[in-house]
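User: Hi! I'm a student and our assignment asks us to look at how structure tokens line up with a sequence. Could you show me two examples?

Assistant: Happy to help. In each example below, the sequence comes first and the structure tokens follow. Example one:
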Amino acid sequence: MSRFTRLPSSALRLTGPDRLDFVQGQMTAHLKAAPTPGMVPACFLNVRGQIEQFARVYRRPDDVYLHLDDLSGTGEQAALLAARLKKYIIFDAVEVHDVSGVLSSLHLWGEDAEALAGWDAKGPDVQSFELGGGAVLVGRVKRSGMTGLDLHYLRQHETGLLAALNLQQAPPAELEAARIAAGVGDVVRDGWQGSLPQEVGQDAAVSYRKGCYVGQEIMARLEARGNTRHALRLLSGRNLPARSEIRHGDRVVGQTGASSGTLALARLRKDLPEGAELRVGEGLAVVVSPAPA
């Protein structure tokens, strides 16, 4: 049976005739190749090719909507990205609107998530329709190892929306445990800012067939070289701490992302010998390799 989990979020809306060209030149994904409506996961990099922020970017007929997971619940992620984008606006006819205060998001997951009223399970990955007295923007997103639906809606319509869903609410920890077990990396929840996208399972967020953006030169070098020193892995152990150093002997070989206690995602060196004994905090861990996602 499907259930829903609230997503602490912030959001930006880009308007103006140059909005598509502008945001295309700021991020790793190829938004122009997406349908309308459509969505791409995207990273915003520094000049070293390291992730500064991650967003799911929705292309719509009249605007571009950027959804950011924001665990603080304060709108911090949208504010940071808005400041970055505004820094690059020179002659572009584009306006950046922070809409974090009026929008909310939740994730619908479970085996029958796509049975949502109004959703066409055979239709495109992004759809908009009326639900519970208000408009919703819905996109297919894999957050738990199985495809689910992200729903974005006006906060003023939340009561009617939740009544229309008529589903049990699952706590964030339950969705998080399912995500970790499935090996699905998450830039914000795992703390992967400062990593290369390819090291932390964000390959799908990078297009090598689009125009210039900050960090593109590093992405091109990685494409030519064909690999990175680190990769996303899943560790198994006991009492595994989150966001901690991973050691092989006296050598630091990676760091953990989020942890459920017995499982943890990890950014781990690829040159470790098979069966390597790893230490995370005070405990031992083994690699479930590759990560199953």
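Example two works the same way, sequence first and then tokens:
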Amino acid sequence: MMGGLASALLPAVRKSGVVWFGSSGKLRKVVPGASPLVQVETYGRGTIATVDLPEQHYSGFYEGFANSALWPLMHSRPDLSRASAHDYAAYREVNAYMARTLATFGGADSTFWIHDYHFLPLAAELRKLGITREIGFFLHTPWPSRRIITRLPQFRELAQAMLAYDLIGFQTDRDRDNFADLLRTELHLRGNGTTFRTPRGVCRLATFPIGIDAREFATRAEQSFEDPLVQRLRASLDGAKLIIGVDRLDYSKGLLQRIHAFDRLLTQHPDLSRKLSMLQIAVPSRETIDTYRELQREVAERVGAVNGRHGEIDWTPLRYLNKGFCQSTLAGFYRASAVGLVTPLCDGMNLVAKEYVAAQNPEDPGVLVLSRYAGAADELETALLVDPQDIDGISRAIAEALAMPRSERCARWETMAASLRRHSIHRWFANFLSELKSPQPNVLPMAPNVVPAMRAAGHDRELMAQP
């Protein structure tokens, strides 16, 4: 299964002509002073450029600071956050390495758009190298409250480094306001809530909820009947209704609570026996981190307990798969499902919710049960919104979804589908770049107004950097 960030951004790269710059997924021993090895390939109108990350710093950067310190805090789990000085040093080293590579590959006249928590200080490193063009940043995760983020020993240094960005984008107003509160109260910056004066000029904060290409995804879903895996899934149901959940295996996704709620549903509604199945796809990730290995074990045990308690010789209530599927196959799975169960405990946006809506048959759509703590809940207001910790509440919402008449399902779906069309990935992309390049009043000019692009394959390009 393609990751949420990649599945969201690649359509924009293909159609807009930008350069996507990121990790190749490979490691190599980096010799100080050696030129970076950048691999380049075309992707539609765009270009994908990748670089191997430094082997000596990768573990501390990725498994350490990014995913054992930052990720738990971003998802309001300070109890799981582990921040060591060694890992933080590796995190800064990799950011400095990526800045040197970007500067060499893109040049001083490029416009940079950096993505996600792996690269919070990347703009500061680029500024050290003399980059004066616009640098934007978009955070795909939530930004937590001041009470939580200040548990990070290095929070002040990272927040100050982030001020090197001209524009910082967030998924929701709540995330933006949390960051603004940190700047006001901990860094004592002056600002109007969305614009803050910094030692180098101005840093602007804005909300840009990310979307999907709903029309393209709907087309994939319509064509999915040709997919052999989708055909096998539909045949296996034998008339039963399907609930689907699709997630990375992560403690932020509320998997244990979701399984518990399904168990409660079957206990309270024995009449649903053999008339209902749940398919939970949970793609393993970060398996070298103890927290994730323990979660995988616990989820598997809960699945076994549910099937042992409710299953029959020829009926498995909960189908649990630890592997990914391509977007076209997933679109077919969504379309075959009467209920989409998306119940993260905390999530920046959650594009699975939007994909589920886009994949539905407009004449007979399924129902989305959605956590109110996913960013998508701000837009998909006619989903059945639930508290992901409320087991009985989720169970009741599933039962309501299964019993909902077609007329109500259609009305709810149409409202959400209209929102997806208004807030597409392409509009998100264009809005961010437009805001990044917009002139700001009462700000000293940072550089001559040269062409905000890098030259590649005969086109003017913006440069996007992501993990």
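Here is something you could point out in your write-up. Residues 443-461 have pLDDT under 50 and may be disordered.
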